[in-house]
Amino acid sequence: MKKSVLLLAGLLASFGLGFSINTIIAKQPDIAVGKAGINVYKTEKDNMKLGAFSVSMNVKDLKVSKEFYENLGFKVFAGGMEQNYLIMKNENALIGLFQGMFKGNILTFNPGWDENAANIEQFDDVRDIQRKLKNKGVTLTSEADEKTSGPASLMLTDPDGNVILIDQHR
Questions:
Q1: For labelling alongside 78, which of 27, 85, 135, 149 has CA 20 to 30 A away?
Q2: What is the value of pTM for the model shown?
Q3: Looking at domain 52-168, which of 3.10.180.10, 2.40.110.10, 3.20.20.80, 3.30.530.20 is its CATH number?
Q4: What is the pLDDT of residue 3?
């Protein structure tokens, strides 16, 4: 009889502990362990699909910058010297080198494109991204026209003064 009571008490304690741990875990953000044991947050349904990411850099001398980044393994992917800009690629990394087109550097996202400038099936239209940002109280420095469709862009500035361009090409 004592064994039955102890077994039942043990089962109830195990169930209670398991239930408590499960409740605690359920309240945590979805985390998966990625490569090298680093925690990676899983994609949530309300995350914005921003598309390809690149850094657009204001350069003093396009030729010198091109040679520098070629030494790091980047190859010209788009643009041209005569147009005063180059988009360069090293595997999935993209950088844009722009001479005399804007001040500072810009973090750039391209909804609808992957890192090869290929169209992707599912993406958030820049106007949907704009609505989500505005609903979260984010101040935009330029906006996409809500009455249009297709190519459009918006800009915002992060708390440290970094300019972010969300530039949809299709």
A1: 149
A2: 0.70
A3: 3.10.180.10
A4: 54
Token code pair at residue 93: 């990394």
Grouping H, G, I as helix, E, B as strand and the rest as coil, residue 53 is strand
From CA 30, how far away is CA 20, in angstroms rounded?
17
Please give the helix or strand (H or E) that residue 150 lies within, else none.
none
Amino acid in the structure at residue 13: A
Is pLDDT above 90 for 45? no
State yes or no: pLDDT of 100 exceeds 50: yes
Is residue 125 classed as helix, strand or coil in its secondary structure?
coil
- What value does the mean pLDDT of the chain take? 83
pLDDT, greater one: 34 or 14: 34
DSSP 8-state assignment for residue 145? -
Give the strands of the sheet with 163-168, arranged side by side. Answer: 75-80, 85-90, 93-99, 52-59, 106-110, 163-168, 152-157, 140-142
Going by C-alpha positions, the residue among 134, 165, 135, 169 that lies closest to residue 149 is 169
Query: At 111, which amino acid appears?
Result: P
**Ramachandran region, residue 20 (left: φ > 0; alpha: ψ -120 to 50; beta: rest):** alpha
Q: 3-state DSSP call for residue 86?
A: strand
Q: Determine phi and psi for 81, rounding to 5 degrees.
A: -60, -40
